[in-house]
Amino acid sequence: MIYPHRCQLCAQRFRTFLGRRANSPRRSFERVNVSFPVWFRSRLASPQKMGQEGVIDNLSIRGCRIRCATPVTVGMRLEFEFQHSNCSFPITIDEAVVRSSVDNTIGLRFVQLQRGDELRIRQIVDLWLPETAQSAQ
């Protein structure tokens, strides 16, 4: 079957024969499994307020899932940063909106980030993306 598809790295939309049904038809971008430490806080919090810690479970060029002990509500706007290796500078997401919050796991959609950080996320996804997803492009 021919399905609408979005490139996982450049976000261009096109139609293609996948040979299989899409894993998550509501999601435009496949997420790759990762395990990165993350520090986040509400965009409404004062700069002096300490952030919360968690772990990014999966990542795409437009969002991620974070495991944390802090309860958050759907629609809340967060700012956060994470480091994908000990030798790298942190990647900062200026604004992300909480799309889901269930059992200490929050799903985020990136709303605002710097171009350089977006490019670094694309590089991470490119490295971690399974070959099957890359070959579908």
Task: Describe the overall structure.
- By secondary structure, the chain is mainly beta.
- It has one domain (31-131): predicted glycosyltransferase like domains (Thrombin, subunit H, Beta Barrel).
- It is built from two helices and eight strands.
- It has a six-stranded antiparallel beta barrel with strand order 3-4-5-8-7-6. Strands 1-2 form a two-stranded antiparallel ribbon.
- The longest helix is centred in the last third of the chain and has 14 residues, at 115-128.
- The radius of gyration is 16 Å and the shape is globular.
- It starts with a strand and ends with a helix.
- The model is unreliable at 132-137 (pLDDT under 50).
* The number of domains: 1
CATH hierarchy: architecture = Beta Barrel
Poorly predicted ranges: 132-137
**What does the main sheet amount to?**
6 strands, antiparallel, barrel
Question: How much strand?
Answer: over 45%
Radius of gyration: 16 Å
Helical stretch tally:
2
At the fourth level of CATH, the homologous superfamily is predicted glycosyltransferase like domains
First-residue to last-residue Cα separation: 15 Å
Provide the CATH topology. Thrombin, subunit H
The strand count comes to: 8
Widest sheet: strand order? 3-4-5-8-7-6
What overall geometry do the principal axes of the alpha carbons give? globular
For the residues shown, what is the average pLDDT?
Answer: 80
What's the order of the H and E elements? EEEEEEEEHH
**Text of the CATH class:** Mainly Beta
Structural class: mainly beta
